[in-house]
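Quick one before lunch.
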Amino acid sequence: MSPTVTPTPPTNLIPSAAGRRGDDPIFALNAEAQRRARAGESIVNATLGALMEDDGTLAVMPAVIDALARVPARQAAAYAPIHGDAAFLRAVVDDVFGAGSALAAQTVAAATPGGTGALHHAVTTWLEPGQALLTTSFFWGPYQTIATHARRTVETFAMFDGAGRFDVAGFEQGLERLIERQGRALVFLNTPCHNPTGYSLDDAEWSALADVVRRASERAPLALLVDLAYARFGSPASQAWTRHVATMVDPAVVLVAWTASKSFAQYGARVGALLAVHPDAAERERTSNALGFACRGTWSNCNHLGLLAITALLTEPAARARAEEERARLIGLLDERVQAFNREAARAGLRHPRYEGGFFVSVFTADAERTAASMREQGVFVVPLEGAVRVALCSTAARDVPRLVGALAAGVAAAEER
Ligand SMILES: Cc1ncc(COP(=O)(O)O)c(C=O)c1O
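Model of the pyridoxal-5'-phosphate complex:
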């Protein structure tokens, strides 16, 4: 008998590209929320990952807009160096590790289009095709897209243990499994203010994680990437993670995905960087060369206007002070929502991870699709995940939080009724 061939419509695309989803499910939900709001319904749209003012307009920092306007036209129009301007790279490294610090001296970097570009370079530079990166069971969906597009995969470990804390034992098991199988590992860790759960590792969790990384790195090449996308919105204590870096590097490398998207409320300029910390100068040089090659082989060079403006905001004292003041207002706006959420959620008995700041929190539910659908009937939009719904406090005014939490409680109850 001849084998059955499933007929496919004719396409010029390679087979792996022919079945791709073009739309992001979150943007589709947002479109529905906007359509219903335009039709006159009262809608709470907690789907999108950008910080909104209470009136629903995008929050921007005037200091950033001014810095963009002040960049000399001919400098902006010229190609940026492949790695990004040296002053930009220095400013970002100092922003993460502190000017003059030992870690800053052990760091090389390359400019990337946002944090997304940094994640891409990590995947293609520290994993072979076919290998898997390791991340938490809840993770930002584009990790999967970036990996798949680069012909790598994603594996996860349970993010939380029975007590609702970061599951260090689960992490170690996942890491061991991967090292056993592929002889190397790349870990993506999004903290503080994890998207989508809102979780920030505390100092004890960082210490335990660093122990695991140190032990595992004796067995195989290991890169730990800290995705700092929302770090500026974390609690002051959550910023202390850098003290664990020196205990992990050598032989492991610690990578940092840095982005101006959230910390400067400047998503559109696409300014970011990938940092790599290692005490060995030869390893740093190899790494820097590999990153330059990766830049040339993907986007050549980044948006020069954005790089120059962000450099000014990080290094010119007056511009920096103004940006910090404007950012403090945005952090205050978000904190008000976080506090309102924690208060109302406790009252309603919602189950969610520890949430001290950041754009998102997740609420656990037995059936996320059903919870989100029930909430949509009440005009409240959240994003269904596996086992939880993601709530974007960044786009929800504090005055709407009681309604949001009421809908969440009803949605979780609806899921349990089945
Ligand atoms: C967890 C996480 N990492 C990285 C990014 C990268 O963002 P961008 O490429 O805009 O800097 C985002 C953006 O939403 C994110 O949520």
